[in-house]
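Model the whole thing, not chain by chain.
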Amino acid sequence: MGIATLAAVSGNVDILGYGLAALGPAIAMGLMTAKALESTARQPEVAGQLRTLMLLGIAFVEVLALLAFVLCFVK
Amino acid sequence: MLTQAASGIDLFLPETYDIVWSLVILAILIFFFAKFFMPKMNKVLDERAQRIQGRMDQAEQVQKEAEELKSEYEQRLANAKSEASHIREDARAEASHIREDARSKADSAAKQITANAQKAVEAQKLQAMNALRDELGQMATELASKIVAQHLENDQAQSDMIDSLLDSMEKDQDSAQTSTNSTNNQ
Amino acid sequence: MVSFVGLTTASGLMHLASAKQPDYPTIEDFLPKPALFAGTPFAINRIILIRIILTVVILVVLGLTASHAKLIPSRWQSVVEYGLDFVRESIVYDVIGKERGKRYVSTITTIFFSIFIFNLGAVIPFANMAATATICAPLVFALWSVYNYWAAGIRAHGLGGFLREELFPAGIPWPIYILLAPINLIEITLIRPFSLTVRLFANMLSGHLLVGMCLAATQFFFIETNTKIFAPFGVLTLAGGMFMTCFEIFVAGLQAYIFSILTASYISMSLGEEEEEEDKKVSQAAQPAAQLAAVSA
């Protein structure tokens, strides 16, 4: 029973690692979105540009989470 | 639930046949969109935009024409108004002219009638005077002959006396005539 | 989200209650064995079959729409035109600019429509799998995007000019270039296609796993367990499955949009910003002035 439980836990360590790795990008994306929204509220006339820039930045940051996602499948 | 430990990374390792099919499908899609779908849809959209533009141009032209027509009508109306006022002026002038004419004509006619009437009155007065004189002479002769018949047997003396009598009467008549004429003229 | 709590607690309970497990989806779903022409380069498995069928659907439906397109649109034509208009106005013209963006409208439209329809495979009954749910489909779309922004950059500046612009951006002290140039090179050759590919693939993968997990648990709670004690959990997981399905539809559109807008941004960055910048400055300067005039009036 003890070994079986340990085995079950070890199967999930990758997922745990992915969860940890996703924390940083999650915070970064939240900050970016919040700032983009603030800026849009201040200057609605450049909303299109801001949205594009925000998506570009998020794409940069998301690479980290995506790397973790891939690595979580690599054995 | 990773039943096979080695299979996780397989998700990210492309298979040859998968790449082949993906490429074929992507090529078909790119070709379809670039050569068929987009040109056709763009043609329809452009045509619609052109049609709408044409309609708008047409509407604008119609409006312009209507405005031109309106200004023309207004011009005409103004012309007609001024013409009417002209005509009215003319008519008024003519009317006053006619009135003047008529008045002067009537005046002259009235004068004419008055003059005629005066003339007729004069003539009748003259006639009446002559007739009166003749009758008066006859009556006087008869009266005188009756009175004087006994005194004046011969004709000579008789006619001399009558003549002198008549002369004196005529003198009286003349003086009376002049006095009446002067009063008439005033 | 409540359903997840339900799901996890229920699985815990269930482990205690019986040895049986719900038939959860596995990543095996994304590695189907070839069914036709196995062993040749033209082998077809389940996902490729879905992809081919959806391609045929796109060709037939959009082909019919285009060939029957009229000046006065039918309802369906209006829907398609709305999609085209959305891609043209809010993705291409907004990001690249109207003059420069014209030649890329077709490319971006291809990417948006194809990826959207492929993603919708995840919620189509009996397919239940996005056509973009193997790594190859997002990969070839990402490579097509890479080809486009390289071609755009080379057409605008020449190969040397494009690389100089990308690797050595102006206005940075030269020692930084030692770090920046390799990073930028990796960025335009590897990271961009990698992130485009994996983002789309991971979204499809996780979406399928979530929907499948909810529905498998529902099946287990309602039918496979002997006791009826777990039926309320089944209701929760069914609701979760429905929510996840709706979320999948949303994600399908969102991922297609992000893929398209990132491709458009990359093309725009390759083209450089000179003429575009002035246009935008003018329009920005004009707007507050107009507002000011309106206020003062």
